[in-house]
Amino acid sequence: MAKNYKQLTESIKRQLNPENFVLRKSFSDELATISYSDVLTYIRVAMKGVEPEYTQKSMEAGEHVKEHLSNKLSNIVFRYQGSVMTNTHIKGFSDIDLLTISDKFYLYDANNVKAIISNPEKSSQYYQSSIDKLQHEISVSPYQGNPINDLRILRFDSEKILKEIYDICDTTKPKAIKIKNKSLNREVDVVIANWYDDVISIINNKGDYRGIQIYNKTTDNRENPDYPFLSIKRINEKSTETNGRLKKMIRFLKNCKANSDQNIDLSSFDINAICYDIDVSEYKTLSFYELVPILYNQMKSIC
């Protein structure tokens, strides 16, 4: 069945601006004077980011949660993760992920660190400054507490605090506490986690290279390490290098998935990876509509 791209375009406009903020004049004027076919208009709109005013309200909801938790908890730090941090979110009512990270301890990839230190052949592949950092990591006294118990208590205490404040507070999900700020009409996922450092994180002075392990309430254990801050850093940097084209492609694929009649089994992470993997030289000077065949060829090469 042929697609009605005019209807699809209107649908995406509502997603971009669900609360009817006044569109920025430059983009509003552009849409009013655009002379492209419905398909090209759809492509243009599908690549557009959500209105900044909408995103700001999502951030405000996250900041309110941070304030409530920090007032009653100690030894924690907060970070945001997800597509809001790269401005590649598309859904009008998408939530924001607030990582609540225990600062009482951190874990690191001890096996690989020790394997490098103890093996001259492996050690020779690293600068001495990097070896010094790895040796320092081994020399640090191990945490004497119980990491799982710390995470369990942090999850329990966070649930208790948020249930007292928010009427809508879902504590049944294994990896997140979902609240809704009714005055801002925003949802926030509160995710309990601990820091995790692999070899790359250690030799790069941690920072955005640090990983996390999310606490799973159902299994009462930690998930495998994830590196959300490095992903955010890479997407933001490469999109700057391409004058925003990378993020346009990511948003376009997300909108295609959202508007498809088919069940497309691709996560946001998958879509990020597909677009990020494309050689910058193939698209860094292209117009917006010329990015579509680039995406088509990339998808075809994968399939």
TrEMBL record:
Keywords: Antiviral defense, Nucleotide-binding, Nucleotidyltransferase, Transferase. The keyword Nucleotide-binding applies. Residues 234-300 form the cGAS/DncV-like nucleotidyltransferase C-terminal helical domain. This is cGAS/DncV-like nucleotidyltransferase C-terminal helical domain-containing protein. The lineage of its organism: unclassified sequences, metagenomes, organismal metagenomes.
